[in-house]
Amino acid sequence: MAALRLGDEAPNFTAQSSEGDINFHEWLGDSWGILFSHPADYTPVCTTELGTVAKYKKEFDKRNVKVVALSVDGLESHKGWIDDINETQNTTVNFPIIADEDRKVSELYEMIHPNASEKFTVRSVFVIDPDKKVKLIITYPASTGRNFDELLRVIDSLQLTAYHKLATPANWQAGDDCVISPSVTTEEIAKLFPKGYTEVKPYLRITPHPNLN
To answer: What's the CATH code, domain 164-207?
Structure first.
């Protein structure tokens, strides 16, 4: 099977989860999605991550993003782990965790890397748009917790650039100035970006964020 790449359709699957059976594409509907994997239940770094995601639910909801986690352990194990997450992270897990005991989803999304483990998933993140296209893939080592502020920042950029002929520069945050796409001609700029622009170089043109007053 060819490696999953940016722009590919996110593979569909049906799986059991802590919130019932999921058909992934149907569950996403017209939302954006984050699918992120964990090596196993009762792992320390992942416990903090799942607690953080639960606390960020309002931020994901604002962006029309659904979040689903995955681990190769079963539903009963998930239930106990969720209790631990809620207790230790002072939150309530409010999104499904897929039980991937047969590793069907893990293999579909190439989440098992033999260099790390023959059995457990690496800690991958996939951001998927409403057309079910993969827009971001990040794989973290087991020792480094994921930065969900960064994932929100990337989603803000992906959603902005999906609907405007823009790109976002280094360290961009929502509301910052943006880069006009090279495909936009100088003649088109006034119509597309009425707030004006600054030409640093012919290929580097900066314009204010289009959605802010």
So the answer is: 3.30.1020.10
